[in-house]
Amino acid sequence: MKNIWNKWLKNAIYLYCFIYTIVTIVNSIGYLASGIYSDPNGNWHEIDRALIVLTGVIAYEMAVRLPIVNSLIRMTVTYIPTMLLCFLYVWLSGFREPLASSAYKDIFINYTGMFFMISVVVIIFEKKKSNHKFQFRRLS
Questions:
Q1: Per residue in 25-60, pLDDT tens?
Q2: Cα 69 from chain centroid?
Q3: CA-to-CA distance for 56 and 15, rounded, in angstroms?
Q4: Helices in the chain by DSSP H: which ranges?
Q5: Minimal CA–CA distance to 8: which of 57, 44, 80?
Q6: If you placed Cys at 31, which of 10, 36, 86, 126 could pair as Cys (CB 3.0 to 4.6 Å)?
């Protein structure tokens, strides 16, 4: 268990906490700037955010840890099940309260946009890392 903790679980938990905190602060600032002094959706909104951020962290961990060499295939293999998981969560939340008419479109746009941005960063980082492995410095 300690090996799992040191290899990926610790980083995933730190990443989750960091992203959740930043998203919550940005959301709160947005509400305050609009003159709304309490979250109109209450505690359910916090649980929704927590589960969507968890899905994003799972996607990130899959994207960087799946043993698939081709980045495009690895990102696709990661995106499809995690996007379906987001849709499932939106569908399940419809049993709790009526969904906005654009609920599925909103989650698709937000999740896809964030996934795309993070995927580009991961791919750039991987390319830089692989280029540095094979470069040699001249000794002159």
A1: 888 898 889 888 887 777 888 888 888 888 888 888
A2: 21
A3: 10
A4: 2-4, 10-33, 42-65, 71-93, 103-133
A5: 57
A6: 36
Residues 78, 62: Cα–Cα separation, whole Å = 6
Q: Give the Å distances, CA to CA, from 99 to 12, 13, 96.
A: 30, 30, 9
How many Å apart are CA 106 and CA 111, to the nearest integer?
Answer: 8
Residues composing the chain: 140
Residues 117, 122: Cα–Cα separation, whole Å: 9
Q: Which pair of structure tokens corresponds to residue 104?
A: 């599925």
State the pLDDT at residue 23.
86
